[in-house]
Amino acid sequence: MQIKSLLGLAAMAQTAFGASLQQVQNFGNNPTRIQMYIYVPDRVATNPAIIVALHPCGGNGQQWFSGTRLPSFADQNGFILIYPSTPNQSNCWDVHSPASLTHNGGGDAGGIISMVNYTLDRYKGNKDKVYVMGFSSGGMMTNVMAGSYPDVFEAGAAYSGTAHACFAGAPGATPMSANQTCAQGLQKTPQEWGNFVRNSYPGYTGRRPRMMITHGNADTLVRPQCATEALKQWSNVLNVSLTRQVQGVPSSQFTQHIYGDGTQLQGFFGQGVGHAPSVNEQTLLKFFGLIA
Length: 292
What we know:
Elements: H1 2-16, E1 21-24, E2 35-39, E3 50-54, H2 61-65, H3 70-77, E4 80-85, H4 107-122, E5 130-135, H5 137-148, E6 155-159, H6 190-200, E7 210-216, H7 225-238, E8 242-247, E9 254-259, E10 265-270, H8 281-288
Parallel strand pairs: 3-4, 3-5, 5-6, 6-7, 7-10
Antiparallel strand pairs: 1-2, 2-4, 8-9, 9-10
Helix pairs in contact: 6-7
């Protein structure tokens, strides 16, 4: 009887704290047949915030679920995590096609927006608190989503990524693609970069997503110049200029670059940091405004 009671308590505990990553099969328009995984904590906030978390090349949504501590913060704060997963292009995101780089143009970006809309509807999410983050190819796609869908995302955080439309015109955006000009630090003026964003949604005059750009100075796969170019892009789009740099934030290896008052745009460069996620969850969530 005692063993049965203990097993019963264990089963009850598993039910009470049973949140896990789940695949969603039918979430709406999905032109490139990407996959949707979602993490809904046991205690969801009223009108919860939503974070789209984008995996790197060669990865998938299930792996990226374990790549940061965001799920534990979701448990504590009640927000929902969406983990898109692409089986295409060696599991790299489509950051180069006109479809993804055009508002309502389709591509991987269109499928991700379907996931957001599904989640907003299914869980009564807060459409004013939708965010996107990602590493490497996911960081590149973060900038794409923020540029192509400024009406959807309140803020974005790109780690080891590239500017919006940096890969435009390239045959692909994998490390094996013939054209690696973008990843090696393609340079343009702030106005040119800003025009790429504005041209992705012609006529849009609404609010633009706040952005946080993080990169390692020792990254040889996606050069740190890529982060400099992304910061040039968003400083132009958001109309803010670099005001100061703070060493040792969020940790001793990093230098924080603050634009304006820091609420709209920040950059972080890690000395000696290579091609690594370097996600400081507290810094990320504070920038998003999801924790104090």
